[in-house]
Amino acid sequence: MTDKTALTPRTHTTPPARFSHGVKKGNILQVAGQVGFLPAEEGKPPTPAGPGLREQTLQTLANVKAILEEGGAGWDDVMMIRVYLTDVAHFAEFNGIYDAYFGEQDLTQPPAARTTVYVGLPAGLLIEIDALAVLG
Amino acid sequence: MTDKTALTPRTHTTPPARFSHGVKKGNILQVAGQVGFLPAEEGKPPTPAGPGLREQTLQTLANVKAILEEGGAGWDDVMMIRVYLTDVAHFAEFNGIYDAYFGEQDLTQPPAARTTVYVGLPAGLLIEIDALAVLG
Amino acid sequence: MTDKTALTPRTHTTPPARFSHGVKKGNILQVAGQVGFLPAEEGKPPTPAGPGLREQTLQTLANVKAILEEGGAGWDDVMMIRVYLTDVAHFAEFNGIYDAYFGEQDLTQPPAARTTVYVGLPAGLLIEIDALAVLG
């Protein structure tokens, strides 16, 4: 049996429940829904980057990337990125941030597929992102 | 060609459309979105467990587990759990139920990754869950 | 290293951001969230099929299928279909359209698993669908 490995970047806040920030098994790596929490500080509650969509989005992408790297992977391995926004009015601004970010990532492979939908999130959170990667 | 197998627990209600409750192909097992319907009874419409979030959540998790087991898998094989709640105010209670449930599952592997978002669901349903597993 | 290939049907509109309509790597094929846009016409903005849910749904399914075929796959390879509707009142009508569509697809394998939730989408869009396939 192939082991399933938990991927837990040292800087990440503790998950609010019994789930892993990421798991890897064989060539499949799944990143849990990440939000724009700043690196954890002992004794402080999880705090999102701010004040706006740009800061939260970039922090969220950094949090996803840290989990990929914990599993020996990177954006080039990602097949699917699921984006959950809270406001349809954010779509154009978000796409600009997304494109600029990935433009700086030195990808050698085509970009991942993506689905973007608009949902409710806990107060203060504007975005959540998860990702599925296939390694090797 | 590897066959895709439908996973249909005997106690499950008939899907409301042409989809499978679960499918397995090679080492990939996908569980369709499950809700908190009680075991099907002939001549009765699908009825969710009740009256509250706890009962629906536990029934939903039982329904997911039944499909995993139909495919020779279990929670240890699950990489990703997608949770759809209808009310942000349910998050803390849901996490408590989730943690207690998985605390009793005798997992030998790290917990799955998870994404939780808040969406609309048909009347009477408070939660929907799907899952992706990698076997072997 | 196995290459990740972008799947870009000739008739598809350009994605609004740096993502691929579909990607394939090894035996995994992921289709990005598709909406009911009619085939792209130069100089015209993306336009959804209309006027109703039926036309958008059928165009969306055709758009998903085109990406599967671009990757040498088809509906029989699909493990999971994620459906995002905007209105719970559309569920019954949507299921009728979905069942009729798949009834005409000459599937030789069991139907895919499915999750359907109700979210916000950009103005004018009633449905979005993505899909995960396992080939071979």
UniProtKB/TrEMBL annotation, chains A, B, C:
Domain of life the protein comes from: Bacteria
Disordered as annotated region, ranges: 1-20
Record protein name field: Reactive intermediate/imine deaminase
The organism of origin for this protein: Streptomyces djakartensis
